[in-house]
Amino acid sequence: MNEYRRHRQNRKPVEVGERQVRELRKSDLNRQLLALDVIDGFRVRPGFYGINGATMLTDGVNFTVYSNGATSITLLLYHRGESKPFGQIPFPETYKIGKVYSMIVFGLDIEDLEYCYSVDGPWEPEKGLLFDKNHVLLDPYAKAVTGQRIWGQRPNKDGQYRARVVRDNFEWNDTTSLGTPMSDSVIYEMHVRGFTMDESSNVTCRGTFEGIKEKADYLKRLGISAVELMPIFEFDETRDKREVNGKVLLDYWGYNTISFFAPNTSYASQTEYNKEGVELKHMIKTLKDNGIEVILDVVFNHTAEGNEHGPFISFKGFDNNIYYLLTPHGQYYNFSGCGNTMNCNHPMVQELIVECLRYWVEEYRVDGFRFDLASILGRDQDGAPMEKPPLIQRLAYDPILGNVKLIAEAWDAGGVYQVGNFPAWKRWAEWNGKYRDDLRSYLKGDIWAAPEAIKRITGSMDMYGGSYMGYDSSVNFITCHDGFTLYDLYSYNGKHNEDNGWNNTDGANDNRSWNCGAEGETDNPEIKDLRFRMMRNAITVLMCSRGTPMIYAGDEFGNTQFGNNNAYCQDNEISWLNWNLLTKNKAFFEFYRHMIQFRRKHPAIRKDLSPAVCGLPYISVHTENPDNGNITNDSKVICVRYAGYEKKKGHDDIVYMAINAFWEDVQIMLPNPPNGAYWSLCVDTGDDEGKYFLNRPKPLTWRNKTLKARSVSVFIASFGAEYGNR
């Protein structure tokens, strides 16, 4: 402060250019100053307090940062890649309003600039106060982060993360939100790097945003409506870097966030100095132009700073006692299982999260967010679950987020499980973990699980009725990144995570999988045939269930993780998609693609239409006897019928699915078709001739059918041209 006063006393008028005058005149601070302060040789003036982070102006950079408990903050300026700052500018007290510090620094070359902060204040760990001016801290609102441009390497010898100023001049032109309803969505979960990193992907820029862009035609052909990207915020993949069984293990999945506003620089195919995110924006625009939305998997439940033994990166040094849930003695609550838990419902943390999500919607035009361990977002400052969490409610009603998809992973590592009970405000959907568990059990032959399976197939209305959103609340999935792939689900009885280095103790034990008679790879043709039939069953049921289906990248062509059900650290062939399997398993891929198309073609599966002309209810359930709707623990076959009037077709849309999870053939009888209609067979996963999907439905002259052991058949009611016209 004495240095600042000295500069004030010796200040000389500084000439201001015309552009600076225009900038000053725009200032909402109403400061009519044509002379600037000089601190540490830099021309500065008070900045824009409502714009967090670093923002490029016409002739300067606006730096705004806040801290509730700090006594002072100093801006540190670095030349690109250098370890010592070339400038240290303390924020004067007169540049502070409330808890917010803001300053415009003129004459900076952003092409050669990196910046950080030094934050001073009390060091009282028992109170959760960890201020230390010697820590070099990353801006919590950094739009671009240096330090890990090359995947797997940390070039900064001092281990510091620094921020860059982003130059944003991307032209979206007429790209707008697609607004695909949840009922019409098919979500495709993928890992940016793993999707194209293998040589077999045949893309030019493997493992990058550009690689996904190169695969846009493939994704469009597959028929999905949205990609859900596993974490793309800047993270440290070298955290816990180690070698096991000759493999270098990294934090491959990326669920340990460094910066919430910055895209992961190593996912860009080229260095993007001051243009970070441009390649990601091009990827998003290309996908949108192909009718595909982009959903981000976001991690606000914890950060990469870990517990008391973890590094000081950002939040610990700014306001540790505010950003994290702490015990009365200043220790970290660990409801995330990753060392710390963010204090999401504190007003300051709420503001950060809301502003972050708005930023990704405004600047990157993303269409939705999946919230990792979302139950943490509903805990209060003591860690207890709240009945009406203010953050979750605020996100539900935020005007900028008004049209984006909000999807909760409705549980956390602290024991809270809210599937079916997540506070939704008719806006939030959920990963339906009960759908996964119940369908896995039933489809592998646990026929006693039939009553629960039929609930999940028909939209889990036992969970999502009443004040919730009904079918639109349920995101149905059988596989995801966390667990077995679809191929492995029917190839392994148990997990095989030895390569993770934890003696196979990590990963879920409750997999509800079945190896079909041999553990792992086999040359037995009968076992291989059975495995692919089980896979066809799974995708058929998923695509014929009420709710939004989510599929895991690579499942469509039988990708394997070799029995690893927790591949979080495997940056290698275990996690990378093997695109050679697309050729090897082409028939399965075509079946998978056709089932997505079938779902899209028959809206009665997805949602309630106008009432059917024939008088059938929207949904009805049956056993092998169509007159019996009582599904019990002894039911060998479960059937579901969807019906509704479709105006575009001018007749009723009626779909009938029959599932035999039993290990023997079962005779079924179809219900009587409506007057003037007949049943046509569209899908038969157990067909002896390999005609599993019929592009031209096969008209039936009978109502009886032998449903093969462990198979699924799907029928539609076909009508004459005049039936049901209104």
Q: How would you summarize this macromolecular structure in one to three sentences?
A:
The protein has 726 residues and is an alpha+beta fold. Helices cover 21% and strands 22% of the residues.
Q: Helix amount, in percent? A: 10-25%
Give the overall form: elongated
- Ends: how far apart? 81 Å
Give the number of DSSP strands.
33
CATH superfamily of the domain at 2-121: Immunoglobulins
Whole-number radius of gyration? 28 Å
Name the CATH class of the domain at 2-121: Mainly Beta
How would you sum up the major sheet?
A: 8 strands, parallel, barrel
- The main sheet orders its strands as 14-15-20-21-22-23-24-25
Low-confidence stretches: 1-18, 28-34, 721-726
Tell me what portion of residues adopts beta-strand conformation.
15-25%
Q: Could you walk me through the main structural features you see in this protein, from its secondary elements to its overall organization?
A:
With 726 residues, the protein is α+β, with helices and mostly antiparallel strands. Among the domains are: 2-121, Immunoglobulin-like; 608-719, Golgi alpha-mannosidase II (Immunoglobulin-like, Sandwich). The protein contains 17 helices and 33 strands. The strands form 9 sheets. Strands 14-15-20-21-22-23-24-25 form an 8-stranded parallel β-barrel. Strands 1, 2, 3, 4, 7 and 8 form a 6-stranded antiparallel sheet that branches. A 6-stranded antiparallel sheet has the order 26-27-28-33-30-31. Helix 10 crosses helix 11 and helix 14 (525-543) packs parallel to helix 16.
